[in-house]
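name: query_chain
kind: protein
chains: 1
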Amino acid sequence: MRAAWVASVHNLNFPSSAGLSAEAQQAEIRRIVSTAAASGLNTLMVQVRPEGDALYRSRIEPWSRFVSGTQGVDPGYDPLATFIAEGRAQGIAIHAWINPYRAATSSKVARARNHVTNTMPGAVRRVGSMLWMDPGDPAVRQHVVRVVQDIVSRYDVAGVVIDDYFYPYPGSGIPRGTFPDDATFAKYGKGQSRGDWRRNNVHSLVRDLSGVVSGGGRRFGVSPFGIWRPNVPPGVEAQLDQVMEIYSDPLVWMREGWIDYLSPQLYWADAGPQSYSALLQWWRSPQANPRGVPIIPSIAADRVGGSHKWPASEIARQLELEKKIGPRRGNTAGFILWSMGPVMRDLKGVREVIRSSR
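structure:
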């Protein structure tokens, strides 16, 4: 897998702005797919559900405001179907990337009548300025599974991938461990500790999605935070403990065989306090990954620009390390670049770096 993320949230990668004409958006899709193919990529992870919405003709959720400008308004074409058709023509596999729990990036933005905040208001919680579907409510899991079942039953996607947003990350206005689920925990906790219960809620969704997606040639993957826990492996620094703070434990999913691949977000330079090579080696080790689930690292191509100012040689180094660090199961590894934006802009000649890594 030689892939890139195509983010629709906040119009990061596609479409370039909300409310463009159908023709302009379709032209953008053709450029994205053509650039991916010319750069030596073979897969795109297209974000089709950024906030309880849809970049495809959904029977369940409203059109995304990031395509039409207003949630629920038909953009006049089907972005996912167009990506699939263009991908098929140019040898690019399309995976549907969904955010499972985020209901709204901002509680202030108008939402459509058939949005989850209106159809399932009892399952939605306010967290800071966002709205979040409560992972502890069984109705939420059933809803997400239904959404994914609808996608795979009607679209010829090569797979489905979920990202790292499980319980919300702590941050400004979101103190650690403060997700507002007292009522849900009281109803469904059944004697578990709050932490164990929250982790089991996430486990259940991953397991259920695996049953819906896997098979028929499709692959189911998850892209979690890149460090399992602080000081694992020894010497790796992290301010976040994903197991204890966002209740994500990828080791369980790998050991249970629920996922076809894992793409930890290794968005750091090599040989630093979050060393890319040390982390990749640990994720691929028998200790962490006894089943040998393919580990396909996400790599921060965007850091060749902006405040990090990485040289393109850092991306070249990481792509080369990915091929050398084992164990790999046969040839079923690869990488996913965050994101397609730097590839489209060819920041510091990154396209040739990718082509040369084949």
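note: Residues 273 and 289 are 22 Å apart (CA to CA).
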